[in-house]
Amino acid sequence: MSLKTYTEPAKSGILLIDKPKDFSSHDIIAICRRELKTKKIGHSGTLDPMATGLLILLIGREATKKQDQFLKLEKVYSAVLKLGGETDSWDAYGEIVHSKPVPPLAAEDLRRAVQKLSGRIVQPIPFFSAKRINGNRMYELARKGAEMERKYNEVDVQWLRAEFTAPDEIAFTVRCSCGTYVRSLGYLLAQELKTVGHLTSLRREKIGGFCVNNAFDGNLLKGTGSDLYTHVQTEAL
After folding, report:
1. HEC states along the chain?
2. Digit-coded pLDDT (tens) for 2-35
3. Could you tell me whether strands 13-19 and 52-59 are parallel, antiparallel, or unpaired per DSSP bridges?
4. Residue 68 designated active-site
5. Residue 88: left if φ>0, alpha if ψ -120 to 50, beta else—which one?
6. Could you give the C-alpha distances from 234 to 8, 16, 58, in angstroms and in order?
7. Rg (Cα) of the chain, in Å, rounded?
8. Residues 90 and 128 sit within 8 Å (Cβ to Cβ)
9. Residue 38 — pLDDT band, cuts 50, 70, 90?
10. Which is the catalytic residue, given 18, 22, 27, 48?
11. For residue 163, how many other CB atoms are within 10 A of its CB?
12. Which domains does the chain have, with CATH numbers?
């Protein structure tokens, strides 16, 4: 059945999905469009293919009208930063482009670095991101080897946790405003520690008051016939 023949969904609301690793957010949306037989699906912010965690899908006309409202909600992420090697994407899916020794570091060094990156900060936008430049996604230009001027944005960051799990590895959790690139926070944190680094894991735990613990397991979307409508929350709009 073509999407052109799909009708308005039986009910409008939000669908919480726990996105698996190696799925793009658009993969999840495409599957849900097919399963729910509707084109009317929006979202509250995508996740990188390497990332796991909470996606909020907006199902139906009434829900998609509120996409801007959901996009502006603050988010909570947990991540792991590997020090000593920087990749072109600032995560484990990229190629190492810069290596630097990791100096001896103590918990106090990490505390000072995190303090400098707290509150309202300016962060670089990764070249491998979905932000558009003259109508083109930055990751599309990056894959073509196009030269790009570094872009920056201002975000609000609160560090909920940051600790060494190995001499060259840091686990951290942040609450941040919309538009925050956690890969950029890892990049900046490594710089503050006088080295380089990249994220090896990234998980979105919360969006506003919505938690991944209450989300539908995205791994179940790999099969067919999932009764997704029973998981659409109408009262959240």
Report:
1. CCHHHCCCCCCCEEEEEEECCCCCHHHHHHHHHHHHCCCCEEECCCCCCCCEEEEEEEECHHHHCCHHHHHCCCEEEEEEEEECEEECCCECCCCEEEECCCCCCCHHHHHHHHHHCCEEEEEECCCCCCCEECCEEHHHHHHCCCCCCCCEEEEEEEEEEEEEEECCEEEEEEEECCCCCHHHHHHHHHHHCCCCEEEEEEEEEEECCEEHHHCEEHHHHHCCCCCHHHHCECCCC
2. 545 555 666 789 999 999 998 888 889 999 988 8
3. antiparallel
4. no
5. alpha
6. 15, 12, 10
7. 19
8. yes
9. confident
10. 48
11. 12
12. 3-72+209-231 (3.30.2350.10), 75-207 (3.30.2350.10)
**pLDDT per residue as tens digits for the range 152-200:** 999 999 999 999 999 999 999 999 999 999 999 999 999 999 999 999 9
